[in-house]
Every structure is written in C-alpha cells, then in structure tokens.
Amino acid sequence: MSPRVARAIRLEPAAPADVPGIAALRSAAADALAAAHGPGPWARHATEAGVRLVMRQGAVHVARERGRIVATLALSRRKPWAIDPAYFTRARVPLHLTCMAVAPGRQRRGVGRRCMQAVAGLARAAGADAVRLDAYDAPAGAGGFYAACGLREVAHLTYRGTPLVYFEWAIEPGPAAR
Hints:
seven-stranded mixed sheet; 29% strand
C-alpha cells in the first residue's frame, strides 16, 4: 500500500500523556487552515488545558501511525455550546462530535474518512442513535467532508457571530441491539 493512502485506522482512547500531542496536532491543523483560508475562528490554537477540559467532558480518541498521533476527535453526550438541538432530528441518545483534526501532512489521504467510519462503531457501542456536529460555514469549514462521509446537513445559522452548518448522522443499531 502506498504511504500516501491511510491504512486501517483504529481510534483509541487518549491518555493523559497524549495531551501535548493532541494540542500540537490541533494547532498545526489550525495553522494550515489559516495559511490556506486566512484568519478566522478556525485559526485558534488548542491549549493543553483546553484538551484536558474536553477529556473531562467526553471521550477523546486518537489515531496513530508509527506511534505518532495523526488524528484526534472527541465524542460526548454533553451538548456543545454551539449546538441547538431544535434543528436536529429527535434522537434518544445523541453523541456530539467535536475537536476533530487530522495532521496536515495526512489530510486528503483517507485518515479522516476512516476516523468517521470508526466513529459510527463507537457510537453504536455507546448505544447512541445519532451523531451531531457543526462545521464552519466557510471555505475553511469541513462541511463538504462531512457530507461526503454521509452526514446530513440540517441547518445553516450564525451562532455568536460564527457562521455554522449543522450535520447529523443517524446511527443504525448494531446486531446486539436489534
């Protein structure tokens, strides 16, 4: 397999020792977005304190290649500040996807798509019936990526001055839940 294409991605729970690497990866992704699209909310650097906060609020996961973190994301039952549930299909147990980032050198290689496939499995295992998220409604936003992964766009709105697109993903129950 070519080194340019992502191998199978396994998301694993992040450990406290991963905090500096997660903050660095998220900051590098923000820098790449700023370089490509200019300043905006997508250009904010992550801090170690911020990563620790997200870890307390939900489950942070990482994907590694050769021991290095190449992607990260968080899943939580806790509703993020920018999500208004009124725009989403009613769900019994929704999970919220936040803080997804892929190392700039590994973007457009299938890493993000494989992470999203893993998210579906994690959601099923958690008994969730939906995954909800927002993306910046701007060229720097990942809306096209989420749509390509099969998520449904449900709303465009501005929240506290930031244009967003809401997405949802209905999760089919696993065989044990049927």
